[in-house]
Design brief:
The protein is α/β, with parallel strands linked by helices. It contains 20 helices and 13 strands.
Length: 453
């Protein structure tokens, strides 16, 4: 099987390669990117990673021509960042100048990112349909729900969006409740949109565990979402929210923490990743191209070692402002290995390629399983996965609060898609003003002007 990564020069690509090492599902990995430096560095990192690995990985090919990268492929990972990390910095800073939250996928920043990304994602979808019509597209590109819905208008059910946040929440909550998330009798209930979902049930052998967890402040304090949202609010809410709902439930505190930080998340990543790519491009590597200990044979750290250091720093500082807003605490070591979305992607590919039936939380057109939304709306729900693709499973209807937020955000996504595909400033303005985290139509208009809309 061949896997093509669009955005193959992206910082997180080695996580995908790590997941593929020792697994026979993918035999060839094709990297495509428009940035030659990033593509060159990531190819070097993968070469060292493969040489040092205990298990073999797929052979790697770099391809700068898009159609050549797609032709004959079985799976396509869309992992692009239109405008690079510099674009993310602007998406954050422009809203913050108006006193509005700027974040990669949430609020005005997420809308601006979507406006810039959707046209490129649609072009890629059209090339997949033309050159590799039988390929399955797995979308990592943020804002994942919006981008997946736009691509689905071209590719239909052959595009599936993934995110590691829901599976991380389920696994952390299960451990806190004293259950093994890999046990045969374990089940859960989750519903939402990407970065806007709720875990509403946890069960082991038919015994419901979530009410007991929500009533146990000590257990809630043992994992990330419990510390982010606090026992009082979680008990009142009656469910466990996706971590990104912290921006909605604690908007004032999150915004204050972002504005008081030395740098925004985008500025931090832009600086660190620029440093990494420059240093890794200069790195000579270790003996036989392997990623050995720093300084081996008188050499400095290899490109792979530099990547691993930068990756760990990235994981350690993830959602740092939100943690600062809730008293300041360090992430659990279990959550620092970076093995989230890449493992979900591998499980998805294995299920499709081998018809190994499994259940994963994915972003797909709901087909009516979420009663508050129309069948074409992309939702984030548990899906049965097999050779047929991803089929959303029935879920309990969202309550009024959940449905209200989902409807509001779906209207934002669709207005942004309309704006991105037509160039309509009116649609872009509707997308911003409808967002619950944007509190002024006048400010929204100024944000669009500052963002050159």
């Amino acid at each position: 099987m061949r896997l093509t990564i669009l955005g193959g020069g992206g910082f997180r690509v080695p996580l995908v390669f790590r997941a593929l090492q020792g697994d026979p599902t993918v035999t060839e990995l094709v990297l495509h990117d428009t940035d030659p430096l990033r593509l060159r560095v990531i190819a070097k990192v993968l070469a060292e990673q493969g040489a040092a690995g205990a298990a073999p990985g797929p052979r790697v090919r770099v391809e700068t021509d898009l159609d050549a990268a797609l032709r004959g492929t079985d799976f396509v990972f869309s992992a692009i960042r239109v405008g690079g990390t510099g674009g993310r910095v602007r998406d954050e800073q422009v809203p913050l100048a108006e006193g509005v939250l700027g974040q990669e996928t949430v609020g005005a920043g997420g809308v601006l990112y979507g406006l810039r990304t959707v046209p490129v994602a649609l072009h890629l979808a059209e090339r997949v349909r033309a050159v590799a019509p039988s390929a399955w597209v797995i979308n990592f590109t943020n804002p994942a729900g919006m981008v997946t819905e736009a691509m689905a208008r071209v590719l239909g059910p052959r595009v599936i969006g993934i995110c590691d946040s829901p599976v991380g929440l389920v696994r952390r909550a299960a451990r806190a409740a004293g259950a093994d998330p890999d046990a045969p009798g374990f089940s859960y209930d989750y519903v939402g949109l990407n970065h806007l979902g709720w875990l509403r049930g946890l069960a082991l052998d038919g015994r419901e565990l979530l009410p007991g967890l929500l009533a146990d402040p000590a257990a809630l304090g043992s994992f990330e979402e419990g510390r982010l949202f606090g026992a009082e609010w979680l008990s009142a809410l009656g469910s466990l929210p996706n971590e990104y709902l912290h921006y909605y439930y604690f908007e004032r505190e999150a915004l204050a923490a972002v504005r008081s930080a030395d740098a925004t998340r985008g500025e931090f990543l832009h600086a660190r990743q620029s440093e990494f790519f420059a240093a890794a491009d200069r790195a000579g590597g270790t003996e036989a191209g392997a990623a050995g200990s720093a300084g081996a044979a008188g050499r400095g750290p290899s490109a792979y070692e530099l990547w691993e250091r930068a990756r760990l720093e990235r994981e350690e500082t993830y959602m740092a402002e939100n943690r600062a807003a809730t008293g300041g605490w360090q992430r659990d070591p279990h959550d620092l290995d970076g093995g989230g979305y890449d493992k979900v992607a591998l499980a998805l590919m294995r299920a499709i390629a081998r018809d190994e039936r499994t259940v994963l939380i994915l972003n797909v057109p709901g087909g009516g399983v979420v009663s508050a939304l129309d069948p074409d709306a992309v939702v984030e729900v548990p899906c049965e996965v097999g050779a047929f693709g991803a089929r959303p499973l029935p879920v309990a209807a969202p309550d009024e609060h959940q449905a209200g937020l989902m409807l509001a955000l779906k209207s934002v996504e669709r207005a942004a898609i309309e704006a991105a595909t037509t160039g309509s400033r009116a649609a872009a303005l509707r997308a911003l003003v409808r967002h619950p985290l944007v509190d002024s139509a006048a400010a929204a208009s100024r944000i669009l002007t500052a963002a050159n809309w």
